[in-house]
Design goal:
By secondary structure, the protein is mostly helical. Helices cover about 65% and strands about 0% of the residues. It is built from 8 helices and 2 strands, in the order H-H-E-H-H-E-H-H-H-H. The chain has a two-stranded antiparallel sheet.
Length: about 270
């Protein structure tokens, strides 16, 4: 996921508090605070993007730094969310039980696609401004550590959690969202006429990713995964609104019945 919200000021303002939490409550407390900070970053991004266009793709601006080739930017910026959980798993002092392994597998599978597949399917993508690239890279380091560390070290599920309704429903929703996201990217990449969920919403690819991480949060049932799902919704709903308005302004015959993000609703 390409994350470009401006959240560096928020991060600096709470750095001292994070250090104190690590000393007083240990790493589990730090992970909780990082989760809370992620939600705050999502809210700040949602508010900021009401007035500022997210600087990527057709909205890229030289004001946000020199251009980084699209394929290289996507590969490098997503790489931490792939490598960090794998490294944490390989160097873990214990082998996580099946529920954690399945959740880690879901998270890693998403970033295998986003790191090792998606960038190399891009056809003539517009370069990514350097600042946008750096923010996305930092976020993927942040979230890769947050989700990977929790699942590898601190998650405590019952042995039969993988057979519980929450887990089964959540993982099914995760898979549905992944399929929607990949299929929607395929339609965009091949410049086809609207198909799939694009018949109903402008941001079908965003909708798929929101569904994906909402399902992951249900299956994981953790503060860390919930924070990521909330952040994803806040940031991608802003981008969907930006895209939707662009199409409405540019094409007079753009279907007024087509929703912005959620089919038939929003």
């Amino acid at each position: 996921m390409d994350h470009a919200p401006v959240y560096s000021v928020l991060g600096m303002s709470v750095a001292g508090g994070m250090a104190g939490a690590l000393l007083q409550g240990g790493e589990p407390r730090l992970l909780e605070l990082l989760s809370g900070l992620m939600v705050l970053m999502g809210i700040a991004s949602y508010v900021a993007l009401r007035w500022i266009q997210a600087p990527y793709g057709r909205y890229a601006s030289a004001a946000f730094g020199f251009p980084v080739p699209a394929r290289l930017a996507w590969f490098l910026q997503e790489l931490p969310s792939l490598c960090i959980p794998i490294a944490l798993l390989l160097y873990s002092s214990r082998t996580p039980p099946l529920p954690q392994l399945l959740l880690l597998g879901a998270f890693i599978a998403h970033y295998v696609q986003r790191t090792l597949v998606f960038p190399f399917l891009i056809r003539g993508g517009k370069p990514t401004p350097f600042v946008t690239f750096v923010l996305a890279f930092v976020f993927c380091v942040y979230n890769g550590y947050l989700q990977g560390r929790y699942l590898c070290t601190y998650a405590d599920y019952s042995p039969d959690w993988a057979t519980e309704p929450f887990f089964i429903i959540g993982m099914s929703v995760w898979l549905l969202g992944l399929v929607i996201n990949i299929h929607s990217d395929h339609i965009l990449r091949n410049l086809r006429k609207p198909g799939g969920l694009f018949e109903h919403v402008t941001g079908a690819n965003f909708f798929g990713e929101i569904v994906e991480w909402a399902g992951f949060a249900v299956a994981s049932w953790s503060t860390e995964s919930a924070a990521f799902a909330i952040f994803t919704f806040l940031v991608l709903s802003s981008r969907a609104q930006q895209h939707h308005q662009w199409y409405l302004d540019k094409f007079e015959d753009y279907p007024k019945s087509r929703k912005m993000l959620i089919p038939f609703l929003y």
